[in-house]
Structure prediction request, 350 residues.
Amino acid sequence: MNRLMKRPAAARTSSSAGKGLFAAAALAWALGLAARVSVARKLGMPAAQADGKWHPFEPKPGDNSSSAASQSPGQGPVIRSQSNLVSILASVIDKNGKPVIDLPETAFSLSENGVPQKIERFEAQTSRPVDLALMIDSSASEYKDLKFEEDAAAHFVKQVVRPGDSLSVFEIAEAVTQIGEFSDNVSRLENDVRRIEPGSGTSIYDALVLGSGALGRRPEERRRAIVMLTDAGETTSGADFDEARRAAIASGELIYTIVIRVVNNENGRNTAGEHALITITDSTGGDMFFPDNMSQIPEMFDEINRELRTQYLLGYYPQPVPPPGSDRHVEVKVDGPYTLTYRKEYFTAK
Prediction:
């Protein structure tokens, strides 16, 4: 069962007793919401109706803006679109790790399920607005570095968010907490980053499912990305790997992950969690980063920002028309000795 909390803007409790009461209340709220969602699903009701309210990762009653993605019981969300134009964002990197810009359309070719496709839309260095979910792991293993991570993330917010873009900060612990609404207000977003608090678990799969749902409800014709800072030590999710992978693919987002290795020895860290994130990232596009030390994190955030600003957009109408409800595999190639990252899968609407 996915768990979600949305942090109010009220001041934090300062006394240890207050913190204990807050934690107990938050746990009770989360368990109560989980129970209401379970009841709603059994009755065939949307979770937003289970308690007469709407929640951050559920559409508002009467809100039709969420047609980009929907979810069926036991299945990830699927793309909903008025046309069958497929848009692929691609990043081209040279041998020095720098973005390659100003390539012509003729430098690219693509195919779907092995069948060559005609590129109908091409934008070099697309300037389309981007919606970002910035996710910070606040589990106990990250506690000693949390202040540094918050500083680096606040720097990233200042660098990446431009007028027309939007970003929302998420805290990953035993529950996934959306700190604030999507916004382009940089000072408010920096403050949201610094409101992250230490947690006791790591729900990475839940974060991907819930963050993908939030991005999927953003307006069409915008780019979407999750930027995650984590030790990859999945411990407390209700969702599993396949649910997280399907949700990420269906939202059309790119995933950028900075993995903080608490220990260098493989026997002492969660390599299974790392491999799971590598697999999901490879399907969606984006990139993985493994800093040798904390001082490299700001540079990696800067690299993510550069990639987001130098992406190519390739659009095509699949031929032959794919069957409804199918999992499609895309391959993009580029002329030259470059590294190419892009979304490799998508789901057709049922």
